[in-house]
From TrEMBL:
Extent of the signal sequence: none
Record's protein name: MoxR family ATPase
SUPFAM superfamilies assigned to the protein according to its UniProt record, in alphabetical order: P-loop containing nucleoside triphosphate hydrolases (SSF52540)
Native source organism of the sequence: Gallibacter intestinalis
Gene3D superfamilies: Magnesium chelatase subunit I, C-Terminal domain, P-loop containing nucleotide triphosphate hydrolases
Residue intervals of the ATPase AAA-3 domain: 36-166
InterPro entries reported for this sequence: ATPase_AAA-3, CbbQ/NirQ/NorQ/GpvN, ChlI/MoxR_AAA_lid, P-loop_NTPase
Length: 315
């Protein structure tokens, strides 16, 4: 049974994002797993709104950068200035000094600026002029990007893509959802209606609780079988890395927690496998020529890999 706190967070966030409860749950799972999210979709489907709504419902401090070609690394990390009064250098915090950092349209800026996020995403700190500064806890990056090929975009390097625990796409709303969106925004902005339903320290407690969720060795073997299959597939040039396998195991614990269990089952892996792994895989040319997409190949691997029996996954 889903935790009552989780239900409140989902309900509050969905006030501004109609019909996307599954996406909201997955983003929440990544936050509880201590990871970062990449949202890729066409402009105007609500990526930024979703990030803002989630931040407000969780009561987190918020930082945002609208990435453009002229954004520089110090806008992200901060910089030092000389303080004449005290005769020393003073650190001026950058936009990442917050609980939730939104990098809007990350693939519209330079590779140098994109890479400024690497250290903070991996280690939770930034280094400026040889001095390290830790970001507040909890800390999550939600980056949005438009599909590659859209005017003014460039691909993120594989090393940075691998730092995102999950890549998600929102898609268009259904007919009824679109009608509701128009109606809800006739008199007010739904974001103004969202209230915090949890304190940051409580979220930190939940993150620690997620780490105690039990994962049986059979689950680890199942994850390993899946990622090995991506490395051996004839249509895949670059398979899922060990970091990707760790990410799948970690976020699966968070998903089990959201579902009200203190143990992981194979269905948790099945639910998250494509979202965790699709952005970590590069296809062979013959895969593209044959018309196979990354998602289709990963789903085939999932269907062909035998899951362990569900008995005995709890302590």
């Amino acid at each position: 049974m889903i935790n009552e706190k989780i239900i409140k967070i989902i309900d509050e966030t969905s006030k501004a994002v109609t019909g996307k409860n599954e996406i909201i749950k997955k983003i929440l799972a990544v936050i509880l797993a201590g990871g970062h999210i990449l949202l890729e979709d066409i402009p105007g489907v609500g990526k930024t709104t979703l990030a803002l709504a989630m931040t407000k419902s969780l009561g987190l401090s918020f930082g945002r950068v609208q990435f453009t070609p002229d954004v520089v690394p110090s806008d992200i990390t901060g910089f030092t200035v000389y303080d004449r009064e005290n005769s020393n250098f003073k650190y001026i915090p950058g936009a990442v000094m917050c609980n939730m950092f939104l990098g809007d349209e990350i693939n519209r800026t330079s590779s140098k600026t994109q890479s400024a996020l690497l250290e903070v995403m991996q280690e939770g700190k930034v280094t400026v002029d040889g001095v390290s500064h830790e970001v507040p806890k909890p800390f999550t990056v939600i980056a949005t990007q438009n599909p590659v090929g859209t005017a003014g975009t460039q691909m993120l390097p594989e090393a940075q893509l691998d730092r995102f625990m999950m890549k998600l796409s929102m898609g268009y709303p259904s007919f009824d959802e679109q009608v509701k969106i128009l109606s809800d925004r006739e008199q007010k902005d739904p974001l103004d209606e969202i209230v915090s339903v949890i304190e940051p320290y409580k979220l930190d407690e939940m993150i620690r609780e997620v780490k105690t969720v039990y994962t049986d060795e059979k689950i680890y073997r199942y994850i390993t079988s899946l990622v090995e299959a991506t490395r051996e597939n004839e249509f895949i040039k670059l398979g899922v890395s060990p970091r990707g396998a760790i990410a799948l195991a970690t976020v699966s614990r968070a998903w089990a927690y959201i579902e009200g269990r203190d143990y992981v089952v194979p269905e948790d892996i099945d639910t998250l496998f494509v979202d965790v792994c699709a952005h970590r895989v590069i296809l062979e040319p013959k895969g593209k020529i044959s018309g196979k997409s990354t998602i289709k190949i990963l789903k085939e691997i999932l269907n062909e890999t035998k899951a362990p029996k569900t008995e005995g996954f709890y302590r």
